[in-house]
Amino acid sequence: MSQKQAEPLPPYFGISADQALDDLTVPTTTAGFADLADACKRGREDLAGRGLDASGRKSLRRFSTWEITKYLIPVAAAHFRRVLRQNLDLPQGHSDTDGGAKWFTLDEVLRLRAHFAAEGSKSKDYQPYRPKGQPAKITAVANFKGGVGKTSTGAHLAMSAALDGYKVLVIDLDSQGSMTSIFGGQVADEWQTVFPLLARHYTQTLQADNQRRLDRGEAPLPLDDTLSEALDIKTQDVVQNTHWPNIDLIGAQLNLYWSEFQIPVWRMQSRGWKLWDALTDILEADGILEDYDLIFLDTPPALGYLTINGLAAADIVLVPLGASFLEFDSTGRFFDMLHSTFASIEDGENIAARALGRPEMAFEWDAVRAVITRYDGSQQAEMAGLIQAYLGRTLSPYRQDFTALIGQAGESVNGIYEADYRDFNRDTYARGRATFDETYAAFKTLLMGIWRRDELSEQQAAE
To answer: Is the dihedral of CA 95, 99, 101, 104 positive or negative?
Structure first.
């Protein structure tokens, strides 16, 4: 009779202290953190460097006729080819072999879309909707819980909008610079971020304060070199092109975090400085709202001064969260903190407004939407339904699935739309793309409704 084999003990039993000592590394000093940071930097550069072109910058892949007619321009493939044959001045595409499939750059796709919009059926939406005379809409993607897909959601919405034909500006407000890495940005220091724009806004307030001091016979506060230099910097000076022809970037890097310490110092020196309006006012003053259709802001995972600037500037606030108790609970606390923060600003400003007989201020957003990300319907349907019941229409109608394509694209520092479908199983690609297409469709529906409301409101006011 065979004896029953004993169950193995859990791995945390029987550990040898001497073996543990042999495995131990030397203690870490402060300098050790610098070594670790350098190792991570080299690793990031290696990962980000994969897919760079000969000039050292990221390049965007070409798009096939199949992709263009399925996802980008609503025409049949046969009609698409016929139009190209009849219009040899249009981009004809590139082929790796004689008679092979034709592939087009996104620049060429945009030219083709413009042709179909001018010459094709008027019943089809070849160009994306934006009412004439309406400014760009600013979308902030925010949550102070990390790991919820905030940067990924913002990046893919920006790419979706670009493929749809919109001109997009992405502003990275997170000093970790993940969004900057996705778009291949090169940022040497804080002077190539939003920092000088915020400094310029403060300096303009300080100059007005100094004029009032002079009028009262008081000595003005001096402008240091940082503030003097910031006065000459416009938004266009810190915007850089990306490998997407219709996506531009204001990047971020570690030194941007210095803003979180500098902004309160400026606020103490000039109590009248409306720091929450800094980004809004600068973008408007520099004509950025006319230069672009959409602006996406990636905010830090904390409610600091940069996040407050991004949220105050936003027309639309998107809050990604996972379908779990902890993320729902954290998101609720995030909304509570938003209420406390902006109510405090309103209360402080309106005390003075009432005393001076001026109109009171009130923040307002066109829409706030929560978006469930990394969704697994087999395990999270009940929790997602519960979140939907409590948040109602604030929760976006589409739940963003997590698929194999999302993980593989993230490993190569690329967005899903940058991935070549030939590198994947066709079904895997279709499922991975579909989840972000649905997320964008929900966002675009929201955007178009807001623009249409603004357009009708303006027309009614003019009557």
So the answer is: positive
